[in-house]
Structure formats: C-alpha cells, structure tokens
Design brief:
Elements (H helix, E strand, L loop, with lengths): L8 E9 L6 H9 L6 E2 L12 E2 L13 H5 L3 H17 L11 E6 L5 H14 L8 H5 L3 H10 L5 E2 L7 H14 L5 E8 L4 H9 L29 E9 H6 L6 E10 L12 H13 L9 E3 L6 H15 L7 E3 L2 H4 L6 H15 L1 E2 L22 E2 L4 E8 L3 E8 L4
Parallel strand pairs: 4-5, 4-6, 9-10, 9-13
Antiparallel strand pairs: 1-7, 1-8, 2-3, 6-7, 8-14, 11-12, 13-14
Helix pairs in contact: 3-6, 7-13, 10-11
C-alpha cells in the first residue's frame, strides 16, 4: 500500500480510569498538578510483603457502567476496560448501531489479565476442592476478555484481538488499531490497555524479582523516574482507552479531533527476559521506525512521554536510546514520565500514556516528572521536573517497553487539514 492509499487516523474519544482520577478530566487534572496516586496497598493485607505500596484506583464503582450481574462476572481489569471504553464512546459522541457495527473493532492489551480471579479460585480449590471452583473462572481470567467483553457491551463486530506483550501491550493495541484503520479494515477502533494486578501473588512475584520500590514509609515519593535515588517501580492499575477513527469518517459526523496518530514502530531486543539491551538499541530502533512510518524527522519532535519506569536499567537505557534517535537535539526535547504519578500499570500503561500524550497535544501542556530531586548523572535530559509546563506540542512520541524485549513507539501529531 502506498502512502497515498493509507487512510489518515485521528483520536476522537478518550477514556481513563487511573490512580489519579476515574475520568479523562480527573486524570488530566491530576497529571498537570503533579499529584501522586501512590499509597499503601488497601486491596489486600500487604503487611508481610516487602513492597506494601501501589497506585490503586480509588472510588471506582463498576455499577456506574455495568449492571450488577455483568460486573460480578468480570475481573477488575475487564471492568476497567469496559468502563473506560464506554467513556471514550460517550466522549466522542459515537453511536454503534446495526449499520456500522461491522466496521467498529476493539483491541485492548493487558500484561497479566485476570490474576485476581485466578488467585481467589486457587484458594477455593485448595480449601474446598475442585468441584467448588467457579464456572466463570476461565472466562474471567483469560487476557482477551477485556477486548471481548468490551465488544459485547458496545456491540462492536469488527476486528477484535488482545496483545499480551507485557508492559508494551497497551501501546501495541493502539498501534495495531491504527494499522487496521489505516489499511481499510475498520472505520473506527476502541483501543488501549487495562490491568488490575495489585494482588498478593503478583506483588510478591515482582518483589522477588527485585523490581519494586520498597519506599513503604514514603509512598508518594516512591516512583521517581530518572532520579538517582530511585529503587524500583511502583505497580499501578486502571485502563486507558482511545477511540480512533478514519479521518473522513470523523469529519462526516462532525467529530471533535484531539490529535492524529501518524506512526507506529515495534522491535525486539532479542537479549534477555527482563533486562533491556545495554545502550537501548531496540528502543532506539522502535523510535526510528515509528518516525519513519510517520514520514517525520527527529528534528520535528517536541515531546516524548517516556516509558520511564523508575528502575535503574530502564531509565538509563531509555535515555541513551533517546539520545541516539535525537542526536544533539535530545537536550532540547521535553520528556516526562507520567508513571511518577500513576505508578506502572504494566499492560495498561501504554493506554493511559497514549491518553496523556494525546491530551498534551490537545492542550499544549506537558505533564511533569514528579519526584525528580537528584537527577541520575546518566539521565541528563529535560524531563520536565516536578512542575507541568505550557508548551506547544506538534509532534509527540509515546514509548512502551516490556519484559521479553518488546519495544513500541507511537507517534501522535497535532491535527491539521
């Protein structure tokens, strides 16, 4: 397909359920004000865990979006996904009906899926025997249910799938949805990521891998990307969803356009299960491929929403990769990690960060990297420390990298005719 034959794709709706707000407006207000959503774990008794803090979604009521029967048959990650998708459709004033249902698809990624249901049912199995396990265990647990249940609830009969690429899953979902519309397989796509893995086993597993912060006595300062004193990431939960539309379809119904998505690049380190390749070669190529796909030059980039996990290896590696892509311009491009406020949503992070990047373009305002008090000497770029910044944003990248060596970069651009 030639560049002239590719459809243009725009963002017309957003949904967000996050540790700093359960609507897109609340989420954006939290980001711009540098509010931390990290606190002591309340979803279970974490008193015996090494890590006792997380970015939990607070005050979420699934019954605001779902009837009690449906909510009861969903794991929390799927509740988040369906609810944020309904928000995005309402935000876009997009109606799915029998005339367009086959042209509307859903791609929602997750890293882990319904682990809470799995843990609960394992307890039932051990204490009460196999005959007492729920018949809904499997459909509540499997990772594709966020996408499948969303399609059921909104009536979308088009392309439907679920990337499970660890912490890159949400960004893969947005990129894959972009491709579906760009190549004419759908007119509109609900896409993003969801996760609800703040559970006893999940937290214990990540802590055993020595990836989590143990700054238990100071949770709001625990997630500190690019800071010399960082000691690991903080788990978060929630969902971020975009409604993407083919440009002419959006125009035909008078849709509001937040931004245009113009590039998608993905690579693999082929190096290590959990560690990025030194020097960020894979991340560098993902950014280069995304810019090439967008027909843009690195000199045009204004902002990067970094993966920025607050781990020693990620932050230095991503910084090195950005320097390779941007060259001398690296020191002039604003970069921020919104994980400093939300924590790391694993497979959901690419979703909420795509929302943040879209809103940064729409509002010409950059979210900060909070808790950046003592910069790591190897992390010497402009990370928009601690306070948001008003700045025109024409071209922005959103990076996501996952265990297994998955690297994804999305390119968003201010929409112009």
């Amino acid at each position: 397909m030639t560049d002239k034959e590719k459809k243009r794709v725009v963002v017309t709706g957003i949904g967000a359920i996050t540790p700093i707000g359960n609507t897109p407006d609340e989420y954006w207000e939290g980001l711009i004000n540098g509010r931390s959503g990290i606190g002591p774990i309340t979803l279970f008794d974490a008193s015996h865990h090494k890590c006792r803090i997380a970015g939990e979604v607070k005050g979420f009521n699934p019954h605001d979006y779902l009837d009690s029967k449906d909510a009861k048959r969903m794991d929390r990650f799927a509740q988040f996904a369906v609810s944020a998708s309904l928000q995005a459709l309402a935000d876009a004033q997009f109606v799915i009906n029998e005339l367009n249902a086959e042209q509307v698809g859903v791609i929602i990624g997750t890293g882990i899926g319904g682990i809470k249901v799995l843990e609960d049912q394992q307890t039932v199995y051990l204490n009460r025997g196999p005959d007492r396990c729920s018949p809904f265990m499997v459909p509540m647990m499997i990772a594709n249910m966020a996408a499948g249940l969303t399609a059921i609830h909104i009536g979308a009969k088009g392309p439907n799938t679920c990337p499970v690429t660890a912490c890159a899953a949400g960004s893969n979902a947005v990129g894959d949805a972009f491709r579906m519309i760009q190549r004419g397989y759908a007119q509109a796509m609900i896409c993003g990521g969801a996760e609800a893995a703040v559970t006893p086993l999940s937290v214990a597993g990540f802590a055993a891998a020595r990836t989590l912060s143990t700054r238990n006595d100071d949770p709001t300062h625990a997630s500190r990307p690019f800071d010399r004193d960082r000691d690991g990431f903080v788990m978060g939960e929630g969902a971020g969803i975009l409604l993407l539309e083919e440009l002419e379809h959006a125009r035909s119904r008078g849709a509001r356009i937040y931004a245009e998505i113009v590039g998608y690049g993905m690579t693999c380190d082929a190096y290590h299960m959990t560690s990025p390749v030194p020097g960020g070669e894979g991340a560098n190529r993902a950014m280069q491929l995304a810019l090439k796909d967008a027909l843009l030059d690195p000199m045009q980039v204004n902002y990067i929403n970094a993966h920025g996990t607050s781990t020693a290896m990620n932050d230095t590696t991503e910084t090195a990769a950005m320097k390779k892509v941007l060259g001398d311009r690296a020191y002039k491009v604003a970069i921020s990690s919104t994980k400093s406020m939300t924590g790391h949503l694993l497979g959901g992070s690419g979703g909420i960060e795509a929302v943040a990047t879209t809103l940064a373009i729409a509002h010409d305002q950059l979210p900060p990297t909070i808790n950046l008090e003592n910069p790591d000497p190897e992390c010497d770029l402009d990370y928009v420390p601690n306070v948001s910044r008003a700045q025109k944003v024409d071209v922005a990248l959103s990076n996501s990298f996952g265990f297994g060596g998955h690297n994804v970069t999305l390119v968003f651009q201010k929409f112009t005719d």
